[in-house]
Design brief:
The complex is a heterodimer of chains A (98) and B (268). Chain A is an all-alpha fold and 98 residues long. Chain A has 4 helices and 1 strand. Helices cover 62% and strands 2% of the residues of chain A. Classes of the chains: A mainly alpha (98), B alpha+beta (268).
């Protein structure tokens, strides 16, 4: 019955639900600067993929960059670049497949 | 000092502790600027939101956006909690930045009556979210086949036909099943959204988020935001619990979350 539980706090809500509101709802007050973000749906997909790829890596025990401080900054750059390329490919695929 | 990032607006209430969550840049304190009967929840930022670098990040760097959006939400959730009570406030959409306090006050002055009206509308009310997911469409199909009168009749008809004719009727039957399944689906969705609406003063249907957004294997079939009087919230939750028990047997489940900042009910 885990799925039957009513959640009483937004902490338990999914990322999609938070982003749906924060990025797409709420008052737009005319400030001096507006931070323009990309399309919300596309963003959420990208973020999901990113989380999935990090989780996957950890699952496989590939988490050395978290422990090695000397390597971590460089590794992050490489890792990020690789991830971005992967994500872009995945998003492209989703876009075409959807 | 630097720019002011605005999270939300609420009525000027005394005796509320300061906000401990860090601001949008992860470092700066969040503080309150009182303005007439309002309070603006803000933080300084030296990030330079107008800079090309940040604007580029906001378009491309998903990690950056995720962090900022969550920081934005965390501050607002803290600003709306007083003990175990939820305060009414107006949440801003992500990304409102003012160059200084004067500029923010000008904006508040300009929109003052609309802000007050919006706060009035949600006073003593909470936003809750209800989402319904379909666990298993085959299961629903099976149930419709077994219980739907239209389908039963069709099946009996087919059984009495010679084989050649029955073959063509099979296709017709499939179509009829799919139509009846859709009907049943809409029916269930309507019953749920209408039953919950009875406990709310307002409701707004949102888009159903796709699986790639929710990360769930079940399909979202209903996504509604409700505005509910504080004293009715328990009734709403009870109704949601009961509905959920009910629809589980039909292959659905219902998820409620809240209280949310009233993102869906404060537009002006």
């Amino acid at each position: 019955m885990a799925q039957a539980q009513i959640m009483h706090s937004t902490e338990a809500a999914g990322l999609a639900e938070i982003l749906e509101r924060v990025l797409d709802k709420g008052i737009v007050i005319a400030g001096d600067i507006k931070i323009q973000i990309a399309d919300v749906e596309l963003l959420t997909i990208k973020i999901r993929l990113m989380i999935a790829s990090v989780d996957k890596a950890k699952e496989m025990g590939i988490d050395w960059w978290e422990h090695d401080s000397y390597l971590s900054s460089k590794a992050k750059e490489v890792e990020n670049q690789r991830k971005i390329e992967e994500l872009e490919a995945a998003v492209e695929k989703l876009k075409n497949g959807a | 000092m630097g720019e002011l990032y605005l999270y939300c607006l609420r009525e000027n209430i005394e005796g509320i502790p300061t906000i401990s969550a860090k601001g949008i840049d992860g470092r700066e304190e969040v503080f309150i600027i009182p303005y007439q009967e309002l309070e603006a929840i803000v933080s300084n930022s030296s990030e330079g939101f107008a800079s090309e670098e940040i604007q580029k990040k906001a378009k491309e760097d998903v990690n950056w956006i995720r962090e900022k959006a969550l920081a934005h939400e965390r501050v607002i959730e803290e600003a709306m909690s007083k003990g175990n009570k939820a305060l009414s406030l107006i949440p801003m959409r992500f990304g409102a930045v003012f160059k200084d306090r004067m500029s923010l006050e000008n904006a508040l002055n300009r929109d003052y009556s609309m802000i007050k009206e919006a706060l009035e509308r949600i006073h003593g009310k909470q936003e809750w979210s209800a989402k319904v997911y379909l666990k298993n469409k085959e299961f629903l199909e099976q149930m419709v086949k077994e219980t739907n009168e239209v389908i039963k009749q069709k099946e009996e008809e087919i059984a009495s036909l010679p084989e050649g004719m029955a073959f063509f009727m099979e296709e017709e039957l499939k179509e009829a099943v799919s139509k009846e399944v859709d009907k049943e689906l809409n029916n269930i969705i309507n019953v749920i959204s209408e039953s919950l609406k009875k406990h709310a003063v307002d409701s707004i249907k949102g888009k159903n988020l796709g699986r790639e957004l929710t990360g769930k294997k079940e399909l979202m079939v209903l996504n509604v935001a409700y505005l509910i009087l504080e004293e009715k919230v328990e009734h709403f939750k009870k109704a949601a619990d009961d509905l959920n028990q009910n629809i589980q047997t039909k292959g659905f489940y219902l998820e409620c979350s809240g209280p949310w900042p009233a993102y869906n009910f404060t537009s002006y």
